[in-house]
Specification:
alpha+beta, 18% helix
């Protein structure tokens, strides 16, 4: 929907979202921002709530109803040049003088941004090796970051430990020299054992936080995902995916586009009254990544074991992943 002048976001509450508290509703619309940050925005008056044509007080505890209009002005992002080193334990898969490979947990944001100035992977990197990563800080808040995963997606992240290696790895990702494999638990029984999904993906016109499949090449970029069914049971299917491109939310958009959204995906999934199947995060994991090492030019493969929360949800459906 159209965003009014002076605001950065706008939402129209539908029948599936009504009766939620306002703070929970906006948290689901902006999953990459902490609830604490959004609650502060509510207190600071950054939200406007319009009901039946009249503006009402946008309180955190207000229950939204179908037809409510919510407008939001996102506060300016703070300068990322003063990054805070934090003592945050990381699950290190591999490290040498050139690169660091991390198994990122769900819930961790990759780099600081609006609403997430602490607790990010970058804060952890600064706390682990301040000299290396502070020397790479160019004021964008992303020293060493070659690629990213969504906040609630877990798995392999490759980090460069010098500006030269950052440039080499970035070029490698851009050339599609990197092989990226994911594992996802999806809703429903996928009847086609393996397939390739090719679409254009662009920003949604109705919800700026969402991406969508589009036939208009002027609105989106080509996105290619290959999937293979590993197991299915009790109305869920475990799939392994290889993506040739790295579009924002690509796997989540593609699987929702074939009516099998990722379990727990509150942005692209279908809401149901039975919340038993709705974990706190979407069940998507960057399982394996193969790169050309920027220093040695050796082909290296890094695998991130599944976290317990992923395995627990799979077990709830009677599904196991043996990879």
């Amino acid at each position: 929907m159209e965003v009014p002048e002076g605001f950065t976001h706008a939402w129209l509450v539908d029948e599936f979202a009504e009766c939620q508290r306002l703070d929970r509703y906006v948290s689901e619309q902006l999953p990459d921002h902490s609830r604490t940050f959004l609650q502060k925005s509510l207190k600071d008056g950054d939200f406007e709530l319009i009901r039946s044509g009249a503006k009402i007080n946008a309180r955190m505890s207000e229950n939204v109803i179908e037809g409510d209009l919510i407008h939001y002005k996102m506060p300016e992002v703070e300068d990322g040049s003063n990054l805070l080193p934090e003592d945050i334990e990381l699950d290190i898969i591999y490290e040498d003088d050139d690169i660091l490979v991390v198994n990122k947990p769900a819930g961790m944001v990759v780099h600081p941004g609006a609403g997430n100035y602490t607790g990010t992977l970058v804060n952890a990197l600064m706390g682990r090796d301040l000299k290396t990563f502070s020397s790479m800080d160019e004021g964008n808040g992303r020293p060493g970051i070659v690629h990213r995963l969504d906040k609630e997606t877990s798995g392999v992240i490759i980090v460069a430990k010098s500006a030269k290696n950052l440039d080499k790895l970035s070029r490698s990702f851009a050339r599609r020299d990197v092989e990226k494999y994911y594992v996802a638990l999806c809703r429903g029984t996928i009847r086609v054992g393996r397939d390739t999904i090719t679409t254009n993906i662009g920003r949604s016109r109705s919800n700026r936080q969402k991406m969508e499949n589009t036939n208009d090449p002027n609105r989106g970029k080509e996105a290619i995902s290959h999937y293979k069914v590993l197991a299915d049971n009790n109305g869920a299917t475990l799939v392994k995916l290889k993506i040739d491109t790295g579009r924002t939310h690509q796997i989540r958009v593609h699987m929702a586009g074939i009516n099998h959204p990722v379990v727990g995906d509150k942005l692209y999934g279908v809401r149901r009254l039975d919340e038993k199947e709705s974990p706190d995060r979407h069940i998507l994991h960057a399982w394996r990544t193969r790169i050309i090492h920027p220093g040695t030019q050796e082909i290296m493969t890094f695998t991130a074991p599944l976290h317990d929360d992923f395995k627990d949800v799979c077990n709830d459906f009677g599904i196991q992943f043996d990879g």
